[in-house]
Amino acid sequence: MKLEASLKYFSPQGMYIGDDVKGTSPERLTGTDVMAAIGTTSNRERFGLAAFFGKAGISKTDEQMAVQALARHAMEIAPKNVRKAAGGEFGWCMLVLAQFAFAEYSRSAATSVTCHSCSGTGLTPRKQVIRKVSYPWGKAPYWASRSRAVRPSDWEKWTEVTEVVPVVCDVCKGKGVISARCRCGGKGEVLDRKATSERGVPVFKICERCSGKGFVSIKSANVHRAIQIYIPDLHQSSWSRNWKPFYEKLVDILHQGERHAAREFEKATSY
């Protein structure tokens, strides 16, 4: 049984609660078997299982535990140049890297965050100059439109007023959230127009923007700016040479931990 299949036991679709199933096959796993396999996997690969459950949104506690465990592991394996550059802020820097690494690890095409520009409202205030008319001496009499000496506009007084009006947010286009889904629609592939016109049938190619993942990754510049809060003099060259490869290594550690947990779960459920 795959580890992804265990998620359905955390969100039952019916009112029936029990450890027996409707199927008559003796080889079918029951809910008790799955929970026992999860406990066995947690005992052998606690980090990978916690990272997976935190990624799936099953447990916020598992997510926090995975981030803290990754930060402690990062402090143990950090390169010498990273330790030297961090100085007294080494612990905080490792925690920030662990948080960003987990966010990148748990990112998918369905990931969305609240828009930072409009705070999720979809509208942003904008100043706009509006011309308003007033009649300080009353409105023009009826005969003013027929007179050649005066005009109805002589009774009008125009003033410019600056007002703050809500307009659609330019960042999220009024949605209130920013999606990580790529322009390929999360499929990871796009239509190759040149090959399609040559062959006469639809030909697809890997999306160059997301490299086939279906979503846009977190920009390393955002991680760099977060680290600069604790290390203001961290230059771009030092970040690209020493810090960025270490950050990418932390993301790989999370994926590796999930693979180990999936392997142990399959062993526990195979009999």
From TrEMBL:
Q: A GO molecular-function term, please?
A: DNA binding
- Please name the Gene3D superfamilies in this protein's record: 1.10.274.110
Sorted alphabetically, the Gene Ontology BP terms of this entry are: regulation of DNA-templated transcription
Instruction: List the protein's name.
Output: Antitermination protein
Provide the species name.
Escherichia coli 4.0967
Pfam families in UniProt: Antiterm
Enumerate the transmembrane spans. Answer: none
Keywords assigned by UniProt, alphabetized:
DNA-binding, Transcription, Transcription regulation
**Sorted alphabetically, which InterPro entries does this protein's record hold?**
Antitermination_sf, Antitermntn, HSP_DnaJ_Cys-rich_dom_sf
